[in-house]
Amino acid sequence: MNRTKKFLVAYYSHSGNTRTIAKLIQNFTNSGLFEILPKQPYPEDYNKCVEQAKREINSGYKPELQNNIPNLETYKIIFIGSPNWWSTIAPPVVTFLSGCDFSGKIVIPFCTHGGGGQGHCLTDVEKLTPKSVHSEGVAFSGNRVHSAQPEIEKWLQNIKY
Ligand SMILES: Cc1cc2nc3c(=O)[nH]c(=O)nc-3n(C[C@H](O)[C@H](O)[C@H](O)COP(=O)(O)O)c2cc1C
User: Fold this and answer.
1) How many CA atoms lie within 13 A of 42 on its CB side?
2) pTM of the complete model
3) CA 143 to centroid of ligand 1, rounded, Å
């Protein structure tokens, strides 16, 4: 296990599930943590959020972000987390991945979902980071994130982190 600070966990979370997983990974790997925040937060109302996300995903909209990641160059291994939104990653994660240079880095995707599994989430992260090396990602069930620690440890040990 390498516990130096060369890991980063970057994630977007609307209702907290992906944040919970991100923090568990952060604890296990002693990584930096970066929350991707859209300038305009998504509606808290589930149905409104679902409708807005559908429109944005269908049109390929990339929302502006509130924040940029400082010192991306200092990180070698980057976990990217997103909720599964309409079987893909949430638009703020698309903006984040499109706006940074991940060449030569190791990118490891993860997502949380509401029963639909990983959908295209993990492969979409890979497609948006074509100059990176990828390690196998994992999809976590959104209603079991609070007991996901053993699954996280097994996953990270399997991929040798
Ligand atoms: C806009 C929207 C779209 C969603 N689409 C899906 C989906 O296609 N498949 C699925 O399994 N869950 C879907 N969900 C459920 C979320 O993936 C799940 O609740 C996730 O754990 C939320 O993560 P978060 O708490 O970090 O935002 C959707 C939720 C929202 C708000």
Assistant:
1) 24
2) 0.97
3) 11
What average pLDDT does the structure give for the chain? 95
pLDDT tens, residue by residue, 107-144: 999 999 999 999 999 999 999 999 999 999 999 999 99
* Tokens linked to 116: 């639909």
Quick one: tokens of 13?
Answer: 């979370």
Measured from the Cα of 116, ligand 1's closest atom is 11
C-alpha 30/C-alpha 26 separation (Å) is 5
Report how far ligand 1's centroid is from the alpha carbon of 140 (Å): 11
Model pLDDT, residue 85: 98
Q: Where do the domains of the chain lie, and which CATH numbers do they carry?
A: 7-158 (3.40.50.360)
For 87-115, give one letter per residue: b (16+ CB within 10 A) or e: ebbbbbbbbbbeebebeebbbbbbbbbee
